[in-house]
Amino acid sequence: MLKGLAITPPVVGRISIGRVIERNGKRLPEKDDQFTITTQVQNREGWILHPLDEALRRESGGKLRSLPIRLLFNDPTLNFRSTYSLFDRGTGRPLCVGNGESCRRAGKERVETLPCVGPDTCPFAEGNCKVYARFAVVIGDEVEDAFGTFVLRTTSFNTVRTLAARLQYFDAVSGGRLATMPLELRLRGKSTAMSFRSTIYYVDLTVRSGLTLEAAIEQARATDLQRKERGYDQDALDLAAKRGFANGDFEEAEDDVPSVIEEFFPEPGAAHQVQTSVTSGALSERLGKKLASP
């Protein structure tokens, strides 16, 4: 294994709740009220849709506000990787990644381990560090590639806090059987004082539609037992993943970072322009009513 190279779950596609649009010659992130599933390939119009997007959209009646998923690992922190991250907006490379206690910071000659004080008071970041998370999931149950994941990347504090809590809770009540729990990603809306009462969207994690929590746990126990009888070693898989993540200084591959910068770290002023365009007046109210309807 090459040292310095983080070995992460194989990625076959992306999950987003927005898109990148071109306005006045600039590419800006625009939020949406539904999920979009894409491949890892872009053209001039943007990311190319994955075949699963069309299939699941037909089943849902047009809008993708929930996705049936399962997880690769039992350890919540292997499925959901969240950090405080500072990127170089010129090169797209990570400069500093921390967890609020310690950080890995790229220097001129080497990567150093230093104390992390968080994004609000860090003199090095100067306000440009933010929470950044990746959630790797398998969509559906009948898949040809058992380890091929779709990645949801987010800088939403609401999404990060909600997913972290849900994973911890499901891990606890299932007896550490996250990898066999039948789960579902759901898009939810809320209004806050900071959003000026306009609707903002975040991602939640629940058991599959039609299942109670108790039924989902029973199914997870049965699937876990079946896997063990067939020789599936989940503990070894979690250990291999943990070693792979620890093998590199930074998790993001160099060719992935430019798209991350474009989507989550737009040019100064761009975020305000996009926020204004997607949360204005009647449109926001209509989207909120649609999301709240059964």
Automatic annotation (TrEMBL):
Location of the region described as Disordered in the Swiss-Prot/TrEMBL record: 271-294
Keywords tagged on the record: Hydrolase
GO molecular function: hydrolase activity
Bias kind Polar residues: ranges: 273-282
Protein name according to UniProt: Hydrolase or metal-binding protein
Native source species: Lysobacter soyae
Phylogenetic lineage: Bacteria, Pseudomonadati, Pseudomonadota, Gammaproteobacteria, Lysobacterales
